[in-house]
Amino acid sequence: MTAQIIDGKAFAAEVRAKVAEHVSALKADHGITPGLAVVLVGEDPASQVYVRSKGKQTVEAGMESFEHKLDVSTSEEDLLALVDKLNNDPAVNGILVQLPLPDHIDEEKVINAIDPAKDVDGFHISNVGLLATGQKAMVPCTPLGCLMLLRDHFGSLSGKEAVVVGRSNIVGKPMAQLLLRDSCTVTIAHSRTKDIEEVVKRADIVIAAVGRPEMVTGDWLKKGAVVIDVGINRLPPAEEGAKGKLVGDVDFASASQVAGAITPVPGGVGPMTIACLLANTLTATCRANGLPEPEGLTA
Ligand SMILES: Nc1nc(=O)c2c([nH]1)NC[C@@H]1CN(c3ccc(C(=O)N[C@@H](CCC(=O)O)C(=O)O)cc3)C=[N+]21
Prior knowledge:
Elements: E1 4-5, H1 8-30, E2 35-41, H2 45-60, E3 64-70, H3 76-87, E4 94-97, H4 107-111, H5 125-132, H6 141-154, E5 161-165, H7 172-181, E6 185-189, H8 196-201, E7 205-208, E8 226-229, E9 233-234, E10 246-247, H9 252-255, E11 261-262, H10 269-288
Parallel strand pairs: 1-11, 2-3, 2-4, 5-6, 5-7, 7-8, 8-11
Antiparallel strand pairs: 9-10
Helix pairs in contact: 1-10, 2-10, 6-7, 6-10
């Protein structure tokens, strides 16, 4: 048996089209154009690529994109001052500060300085607490994208056995909260989990978000399990000067022989992350203006 491929790239295009439709209605009916500010500190080439494609897709959805590229030596104080300015700018509905930040800047301090209502990454402690208690939050983009794919695949997630591999604040923990909210039985496995293969083998749903290339192999999976691969790892290039192959946290070749459905890398969760960033910016804009939230684009 070979698994069904869950086409995140195509699904993300649908999400972006829905966002664009809502944006055009917001403009026509209320004269509102959502705005997303992206802040990049330093010149990490991979980060620059993400920032560029985020900016492009933001504009394609009819929103305004504000890009702030700061020198790697920018002080924490100057970055906090920019965040404060964006918090108070009525044209900015969403703020994303690209992570990781340089070592001399306290990431938590910067994230928690963002107005929670504009925190489209959902990383602010207020949003984390709101999500954990089932209140209206801004939900982190990658877990939200995974949830959309799973809801589309299963309809209802109620009663499913879900194992999240990875416990990061960005993916693992919020993913577990979302699955719990949809009434899954949730286990978070990580580097210190005993008999991790046996734990993963229980799962109807496996979310791999550890950042270790091809760690989850086919023999870890229950037959028919649905596998969502969050990892984006670039392997060392075969020859000098070439680009290394992009792989997930799942060994696709062996996993796809056992899984019922699986997301590829690239073309799986990655495009959903950016689509959900746009969806969150739209949601933040609607909330800020006391308008009803877009259906199907929130958790
Ligand atoms: N505050 C913050 N929020 C983020 O959401 C955030 C961040 N910082 N720092 C960097 C990571 C990385 N990230 C990606 C999003 C989309 C793709 C994506 O669309 N990838 C394509 C392929 C890209 C390629 O070919 O290189 C795919 O998977 O198909 C990748 C990576 C968001 N991040």
